[in-house]
Design brief:
The complex is a heterodimer of chains A (596) and B (81).
Chain A: H1 10-26, E1 32-40, H2 45-57, E2 60-66, H3 72-77, H4 81-86, E3 90-94, H5 110-135, E4 139-142, H6 163-180, E5 184-187, H7 189-196, H8 198-201, H9 204-210, H10 219-233, E6 240-243, H11 254-257, H12 269-286, E7 290-296, H13 299-306, E8 320-324, H14 328-339, E9 346-349, H15 353-362, H16 377-383, H17 394-414, H18 419-425, E10 429-433, H19 440-449, H20 462-470, E11 474-483, E12 486-499, E13 502-510, H21 519-533, E14 538-543, H22 555-559, E15 562-566, E16 572-577, E17 589-591
Parallel strand pairs in A: 1-2, 1-3, 3-4, 4-5, 6-7, 6-9, 7-8, 10-17, 13-14
Antiparallel strand pairs in A: 10-11, 11-12, 12-13, 14-16, 15-16
Chain B: H1 3-18, H2 39-53, H3 59-64, H4 68-78
Helix pairs in contact in B: 1-2, 1-4
The chains are: A alpha/beta (596), B mainly alpha (81).
Chain lengths: 596, 81
Amino acid sequence: MTELTYPFDSSYLIKKRKSLRRELLADESVRIKKKIAVFGGSTTNEIINMIELFLLDAGIEPEFYESEYAQYEQDAVFPSEELLAFKPDIVFVHTTNRNIRAFPELTDSKEAVADKLNSEFARFENIWSCIHDRFNCPIIQNNFEMPFYRLMGNKDCSDYRGRTNFITRLNALFYDHAEKTEGFYINDINYLSADYGLKEWSNPSFWNMYKYAMCFEAIPSFAFSVANIIKSIYGKNKKALALDLDNTLWGGVVGDDGVDGIEIGQENGVAQSYYEFQSYIKQLKSLGILLTVCSKNDHENAIAGLEHPEGALKPDDFIVIKANWENKDRNIAEIASELNILPESIVFVDDNPAEREIVKAQLKGVQAPVMDSVESYITTIDRSGFFEVTSFSDDDLKRNEMYKENAMRSAQQASFADYGEYLKSLEMKAVIGDFIPIYLARITQLTNKSNQFNLTTRRYTQTEMEAVCASPDHIRLYGKLIDKFGDNGVVSVVIGEKRGDTLHIDLWLMSCRVLKRDMEQAMLDTLVARCRESGIKTIRGYYYPTKKNSMVRELYGTFGFTKISEDEDGNTVWELPLEGYTNQNRYIEVTDNEQQ
Amino acid sequence: MTGREIFSRLNKVFRDVFDDDSIVVRPDTTADDIEDWDSLEHITLISAVEKEFGMKFKMGEISSMKNVGEMAHIISSRATR
C-alpha cells in the first residue's frame, strides 16, 4: 500500500499501525510465511511491529520470536526450549553501540584497546557461530552507529582511545566477517542513523526512558531497512526499470524542443542533475537491473534524445524501447512479457503523476515512486529499497547483455519458417551436472526468485542449499546453456531426493528466458541417466499451483509422466517409470561438468 | 485552543492508536480504562499526541501524568498547532 512505500510518513505509520495491519491482513493476498527471531540488545517491540507491516506489504507473513529484554547473547548461546521449538528462518541480531561492553578508557595502552576490540568482536563471533550451529539460517546483524558524543571532539575518530575510532574499527571487523560468510547480512545502521540525523536518532531520552536505542520516529526507517534485506533474501527484489524520457531522463520535451533543446549534460545545474541521474541508472544496469523505455514519443525522437552526445545512457543500454502513443500500462505489460518477467517486477519511473496513477491502477504490484523533481530522483529510487543486494553473482553483471542476446535470438527466429530449423541454427550447447561451488550462489538465487517455471516453488537459503549439496540422498542438477549468441549462464536447477528406488523431485525450475529451447528435455534426459546410475526405477514429480506457475501445470504430462493423484487445491503428483525411457532433447549438445 | 478542541483532537488520536472507534476520553480517563494501554503502547500514544499538537512532553511529565486531564493541561500550555 502507498502508506508503506518510500517516502512514508513515519508518524502516520506509528499512529495508524493497528488499522494498517488489520487492512493488510484482510486483503486476502497470498503471502509466504517466515519465522523471524529477533535477538534484541534493547527494546524491540515497536521495531517488530514495523518490520511486520513492511513485510506484510511485500507479500511475506512473518511470525516473530522476541528475546526477553536485552537477552540477545543468552538466546544465541543458551537458547530456550521455546526458541528451539520456534525454529527461525532468519535471526536478526538487533544490537547497537549501547551494547558494547567495554569502550576504551583514556588511560588504556594501545594493547589494552586492541584487547578490548578483539574480545568484543570475539563475543559477537561466538553469537553468530552459535546461531549458525543451532539454526543454520541467515543472520541479519546491525553494525554500530556512531556515538552521540565525542569526548575528544574531532580527534575521537583518529585516536585509538576514541569511541568513534573504536566503533569504526569494530564495524570493519564485522564487514570482514560478512564478506567471507554466506548468509550473513549487515543492516547498516551507521548509514541509516547518519541519513536520519545522528543527533535526533540517538536522542538519549528514548534510551533512558524506554530502553529504545534510537528515537521512536526513526523506527519505521530502521524497520524498512531490515525488511528490505528480508525481502531480498526471499526474492522480492524488483528486476527492471521502465523509464519515461521527457522530464525524466532529460529536461524538456524532445518532440517540441528538438534534440539540441533538451537539458542533459554539463551546461547548467539542471542539465547536470539529469546527467547524474542517467549515470545512476547506468550503474543500476551493471548491478543487473534490466533497463527499458516506456515513453509517449515518436520512436525516432526518443532515439534521437537517447543519442544526445552529452547523455550517459545510449539506446544500446536498453533491452526494450517502447516509444509510442499507446497507454503506458499496456506498454509495460508488453515489456514484461517480452522480458519474460512479471509486471510486479517492474519499477515505473515517470515524472507525470497521472501516468503513474494509471499504471499503478491497471497493473497490480507495479511500483511507481513519486518523481517530483530531478534533484531527488536518485535518492527516491535509492531509498525505496527496490534493488537491495543480498547476493551478487557474475550473471548479475552480465544480465543486460544476456537479454540483449535474447532479442537477437528473436530476430533470428523470425527469419526461420520452421521452429526446429531455428533451434538448430542456435548451435546450442549445455553443461548439465551436479552442483559445483562456483555456481552455488547463483543456484540459490534462482531458487529464491523463480516463480513461473517452478513446479514446487520451494525456497532454499544458502545454508539449506549447502546441506542439500553435501547430502548423499539427493540428486542435484544445474544446467547452463550456451548458444551462438552468447552464454545464458545457469538457467535450470533440479533437486530430487532418493527414497528406496524412487526419486522424489523437490525442486524443478528454469529461467523463462530459455523457454521452448529443449532445455527442460535436456535436463530430464540427464536426470534419468543419473537415476539409472543410482538404481532408481521411478521418478515422482510434484506440481504445487501458485498464482504464478500455471505455465508448468502440465509439464510432467508433456514429459510422459502419468498423473497419479490430484487434490482439491490442484496439487498433482506424477510418475515416470524409467524403463524404456528414451531421450527427448533434440537440439542441444550436452556435456557434463568434467568435460568443460 | 479550548479544552473542548483539545479533547476532540485527543479522542481522534486515541482512537487511531488503539484502533478502537468506541473510545471516548474524559479528563479522568487513565490507562486502566483502555484495554491496550500498556507501557509499550504509552510510547506510541505519546509520540502520536506530540505530533498532533506540535509539542514535546518533558521526560518527567511522561511518567508522572496521572490521567488524560493532566495530559490536556500540558498540551494547552505548549501546543503549537
